[in-house]
Specification:
The complex is a heterodimer. Helix content of chain A is 62%, strand content 6%. Chain A is built from 14 helices and 4 strands. Chain A has a 4-stranded mixed sheet. In chain A, helix 5 packs across helix 7 and helix 7 crosses helix 9. Chain A is globular and about 55 Å long. Chain B is of the alpha+beta class. Chain B is built from 14 helices and 4 strands. Chain B has a 4-stranded mixed sheet, sandwiched between helices. In chain B, a hairpin with a 5-residue loop joins strand 3 and strand 4. In chain B, helix 4 crosses helix 6. Chain B is globular, with a radius of gyration of 18 Å. The N and C termini of chain B lie close together (9 Å). In chain B, 39% of the residues are buried. The chains are: A mainly alpha, B alpha+beta.
């Protein structure tokens, strides 16, 4: 792990927010029904129900149970200036994935595959990504996306507002990942580690972990023609929402590399 | 390891398990209907799926696992040796299908990730469901959509049934413990099921897990029926391992486990 990391005291969400995120968030907040759904979630203790299930099922990371992983968490919070250290849990999973649950007192959940398959700075990248969601106050809307179908079926006339809200919500959700990736990079402060994390996530077989070809992947990311997200075909946009939990990995890498190339990342480090 | 003889459900059943099961049995007409649906529709579907898709574990091919099963059957005094199948799944997962002739399905992940003693706990749990008469109702839960095609208006039953199925796990865990007769083995298996990364298998921290289980408290909240149903839906995917550990530890710490071993162990 790269030891000499800058502590980014005073870091604010707008320092690293991705423009697509901001645009989609504005659109989301203007969409009919978003406040109704938000109030429903808060009133009916949705967060509570989710957290009970997760905390009742998975392993809590503490100084005693997993000291090394707990250290990553503490270090990451210091770097990104996150005052309240969230709780961290590990669930069984053979892929590299993590998520955050809850908006009032969020908890982060890492898959065990992440711990087994990634090195220190790659883990810092992913923990930083999740902390980015928390720091940027994404969590209420993320929860909304997670429980959308249940909630809509329980609000009277729910399906009238649902399709445009659903589109706006899921679309913003994908864009928010770009912002969180930037937080991830600010956390690990190791560009190679973030590229490696993307490569592993996008399909690198374990056998090849020792000889990864960064250049090929970076080239692939730069070539990815659909960089202009606005100019994309509506059909492609729709399909990208139906994708699993994150937008296309290669696209995420492209956006992050862009940000580095623009000099914005360096500027923040020197703040 | 002691072999247990002569003990029955009342000696180890979890309190939450008793309730709904008795209520369901009391409704005689329902009981007949459930029997019919289970044996004619659900069992057939389950049987075809399982025998068609999974790998049959035979004496000839996998003698070690088969003799382990026989040992567990002997230790906790189960009436018959079930058929064992394995299916490809990278996590630790087991499921028993079949009411009168149980077939246990063990994930390949369970076989790869657990050691022999931990496997005893897992087998004890599944055999525990069979021994305790849970299987019919578990099949109902699992294949609910089939039942509701035959019996309309029974949807209200689904919620207590699913809540009961969680309690049935607490009973089965007790038999898992009786099968391996080592609380640390039981807890280690639970830790692995709850999500321990493989790289940590040599240094699993059991006391920290016990602490997490003791601190976990399920607060009672008043829910509308609809929300409760939704939770039960979400419930199927979530393993509740920490809660299960808390329940098992309560039973273990109460002395009842030792008592059972003393009374019925040979």
């Amino acid at each position: 792990m790269k030891i000499n990391k800058e502590m980014l005291v005073g870091l604010q969400p707008d320092n690293y927010e991705h423009p697509f995120d901001k645009k989609a968030l504005d659109a989301l907040e203007d969409t009919t029904g978003v406040k109704v759904v938000g109030d429903f979630i808060n009133k009916h203790l949705v967060e509570r129900m989710y957290k009970i299930q997760y905390t009742g099922s998975h392993l809590k990371v503490t100084k005693e149970s997993y000291p090394k992983i707990y250290q990553y968490l503490e270090f990451a919070c210091k770097i990104l200036d996150v005052r309240d250290v969230p709780e961290l849990y590990i669930e069984w999973g053979y892929s590299i994935n993590a998520c955050t649950v809850g908006s009032e007192h969020p908890i982060i959940i890492l898959q065990s595959g992440l711990i087994d398959l990634c090195d220190d700075d790659e883990i810092m990248f992913i923990i930083g990504h999740e902390l980015g969601h928390i720091k940027s106050n994404h969590m209420l809307y993320h929860m909304m996306a997670q429980v959308f179908n249940y909630v809509i079926s329980m609000i009277p006339f729910g399906n009238v507002i649902s399709s445009s809200l659903q589109y706006a919500l899921y679309y913003w959700s994908r864009m928010s990942e770009f912002t969180a990736d930037r937080a991830g990079l600010l956390c690990c402060q190791n560009k190679d580690a973030s590229v490696r994390a993307f490569m592993k996530m996008s399909g690198m077989p374990i056998k090849q972990y020792d000889e990864m070809h960064y250049e090929t992947f970076i080239q692939q990311a730069r070539n990815f023609k659909q960089l202009d997200y606005d100019g994309m075909n509506k059909i492609i946009k729709f399909i990208s929402i139906a994708d699993d939990s994150h937008p296309w990995t290669v696209m995420r890498a492209a956006e992050l590399l862009n940000w580095i190339d623009n000099g914005c990342y360096d500027r923040i480090l020197r703040m | 390891m002691r072999k247990l003889r002569g003990f029955d459900l009342a000696d180890y059943q979890h309190e939450g398990d008793k309730g709904t099961l008795l209520d369901l049995k009391k409704v005689a007409v329902l009981e007949k209907a459930v029997d019919w649906v289970v044996s004619n529709a659900i069992e057939k579907v389950a049987e075809v799926q399982q025998t068609g898709n999974s790998l049959f574990i035979s004496e000839a091919a996998t003698p070690e696992l088969c003799s382990l099963v026989k040992e567990v059957v002997d230790v906790i005094d189960v009436a018959q040796v079930p058929q064992i199948y394995s299916s490809w799944r990278y996590d630790i997962y087991t499921q028993t299908d079949g009411d009168k002739n149980p077939r246990i399905s063990i994930s390949s992940g369970a076989i790869d990730l657990l050691d022999k003693n931990e496997m005893r706990f897992l087998l004890g749990h599944e055999l525990g469901h069979f021994k305790s008469g849970h299987l019919k109702y578990l099949l109902l839960c699992r294949y609910w959509t089939i039942l509701s095609k035959y019996l309309t208006g029974t949807n209200l039953l689904r919620i207590p049934l699913m809540i009961w199925s969680r309690n049935a796990d607490y009973t089965a865990d007790r038999l898992g413990l009786l099968a391996c007769q080592d609380i640390n083995v039981a807890l280690r298996t639970m830790i692995k099921m709850a999500g321990a990364p493989m790289s940590s298998y040599n240094e699993l921290n059991v006391p920290a897990f016990i602490k997490q289980a003791e601190e976990f408290e399920l607060h009672k909240i008043d829910f509308g029926d609809k929300i409760a149903e939704k939770i039960c839906n979400m419930d199927n995917a979530i393993p509740w391992m920490v809660k299960r550990a808390a329940e098992l530890l309560t039973w273990y710490n109460s002395g009842k486990y030792e008592e059972l071993l003393m009374r019925y162990g040979m």
